[in-house]
Amino acid sequence: MDIRAYLRERKTLIDAFLESYFSAPVNPKTLHNSMLYSLHAGGKRIRPILCLAAYEACVKDSTAKIEDIIPYAAALEFIHTYSLIHDDLPAMDNDDLRRGKPTNHKVFGEGMAILAGDGLLTEAFYLLSNNTQYGYHLSHSAVLRVIREIAIAAGAHGMVGGQAQDLLSEDAEPDAETLSFIHTHKTAALITVSVRSGGILADCSDYELSGLTKYGENIGLAFQVIDDILDVEGETEVIGKPRGSDEKKKKMTYPKLYGIEKSKERAKELINAAINSLETFDEKAEPLRAIAMYMLERKS
Q1: CB 178 within 8 A of CB 252
Q2: I need a labelling partner for 9 at 20 to 30 A (CA). Which of 2, 123, 247, 255 fits?
Q3: What is residue 236's three-state secondary structure?
Q4: Contacts of 198 (CB under 8 A, 6+ apart)
């Protein structure tokens, strides 16, 4: 399949929803502008697209459309964007560039950047729970389960816990156990729950959900391993942030522990494991398989 065309098409759907969702301004206007600055800063929308692709792979109702779950997928982008805003702050990674543009706090100040992140995180759960407007045909129990799983994946037991360990591990001697904890929590947790959420909203079987979970865990970890590699080998103009920033901040990364070549081998192993986890799925899961392969090719 033409995975680039698929990603462009799905990204267009997500972007259109994001644009319409904030058509009514948040007050004060500066907060509104700060939230939208990062939300529309050129993200690839991988997490919501994975949610849509998992839904497509599992849904049995012939009348169902992926548009039906776009609000739930978009909520994942709210959470991801909030995490980037906060991650870039001087008290965290102190980054000046994100996706080739000045980071939020460089444009709006630290206080407003913190509040923009807070606003996006909270709005995500409003969006997920707003069944009076969205997802009227979906099972309320499925929606509630998705809300619970996203909360776990995004919070102290998932992404936030990984970010905390990432900070605590700066300038520490790298070890496999700590590195695995950071990557599986900071990055893979939200990617995994994106895939699981699509399956749950499609009322997938336990067996299907197990396959989706293994897929999400493997591509989530591969995504971060590849990020670590790009920080060493990528071009600043392409990756959207200074090359070598991880080394400068003395981050614990795969190349630092294993070297570049072994890190590349590990990324390939994880991608193959992700694809193998979908062996019982039919052609409707082809986008998921293609996204996994695409990750190995990405340059940003």
Answers
A1: yes
A2: 123
A3: helix
A4: 50, 51, 52, 53, 54, 55, 56, 57, 58, 69, 73, 212
DSSP 102: E
Please enumerate in sequence order all residues whose Cβ is within 8 A of that of 16, keeping only pairs 6 or more positions apart, or say none.
none
Cross-strand partners of 97: 102
Range 6-30 average pLDDT: 95
- Going by pLDDT thresholds of 50, 70 and 90, the confidence category of residue 75 is very high
Domains contained in the chain, CATH given: 3-297 (1.10.600.10)
Q: What is the pTM of this model?
A: 0.95
Q: How much of the chain exceeds pLDDT 70, in percent?
A: 97
pLDDT at 182 over 80: yes
What does the pLDDT average to over 233-242? 74
Tell me how far apart the alpha carbons of residues 9 and 138 are, in angstroms, rounded to a whole number: 24
Q: Which residues contact 219 (CB under 8 A, 6 or more apart)?
A: 50, 191, 195, 270, 271, 274, 291, 292, 295
DSSP state string for 171-222? TSPP-HHHHHHHHIIIIIHHHHHHHHHHHHHTT--HHHHHHHHHHHHHHHHH
Among residues 225, 288, 241, the alpha carbon closest in space to that of 101 is found at: 241
**Which tokens belong to 255?**
């190349």
Helices (H), 40-175: 46-58, 70-87, 104-108, 110-129, 140-154, 159-168
Residue 66 DSSP class? G
Query: Which of 209, 160, 207, 208 minimizes the C-alpha distance to 186?
Result: 160
Among 176, 150, 162, 298, which Cα is nearest to 234's?
298
Q: What pLDDT is attached to residue 137?
A: 72
